[in-house]
Amino acid sequence: MGARMAVRSAVAAAAVVAAVLAGAAAFAMVGCGESVELPDLFVVTRTGGGEKLTVLINEGGEVRCNGGPAHQLSDPQLIQARGVTEELQSPSAKHLALLPRPGSVFRYRVRDAEGAVRFADNSAHQSSAMHHLQYLVLEVAQRLCGLPG
Predict the structure, then answer these.
(1) How far does CA 75 lie from the centroid of its chain?
(2) Is the CB of residue 26 less than 8 Å from the CB of residue 38?
(3) Which of 17, 57, 80, 139 has the least C-beta neighbours within 10 A?
(4) Which of these, 2, 7, 92, lies nearest to 41 by C-alpha position?
(5) Which residues 6+ apart lie within 8 Å of 113 measured at CB?
């Protein structure tokens, strides 16, 4: 009985490692019958231009646009998304809101585990993370989700 449990534990551990390395969004643990969901990095709501876009990205790189089917970020996109999350932690915890300037087209609201950040495409004092986020949202919408962007 002890050897069987050791084998099951080893198989379960190997499944966890394989799923993490593959960037799987969710996986079943062998022998347990349970599934583990990876946490969300952030959800972005972009308004303006006559459209509303919601992009949800989780820790494993799974992305959903407007609640649609799941798509997978490339490794460089996932690294960028994790970097954006890290850089926005402090502003998010402070619930930073940057006002739009005249001529703004898009407004962004980013929610993460720390709180939320609001800014517009032309807000003054944007961080590089905010610029990276705008590009990532556009790229995800167009290339992965097949939306006009």
Answers:
(1) 13
(2) yes
(3) 17
(4) 92
(5) 39, 40
Q: Counting every residue, how long is the chain?
A: 149
Q: What distance in Å separates the CA atoms of residue 85 and residue 114, rounded to the nearest whole number?
A: 10
Contact in structure between 123 and 107 (CB atoms under 8 Å): no
Of the candidates 119, 124, 113, 117, the residue with the CA atom closest to the CA atom of residue 95: 117
- Residue whose pair of structure tokens reads 């001529």 in the numeric block: 103
- How far apart CA 94 and CA 99 sit, in angstroms, is 15
pLDDT one-digit tens code per residue, 72-122 = 999 999 999 999 999 999 999 999 999 999 999 999 999 999 999 999 999
Cα–Cα dist 140/100, whole Å: 23
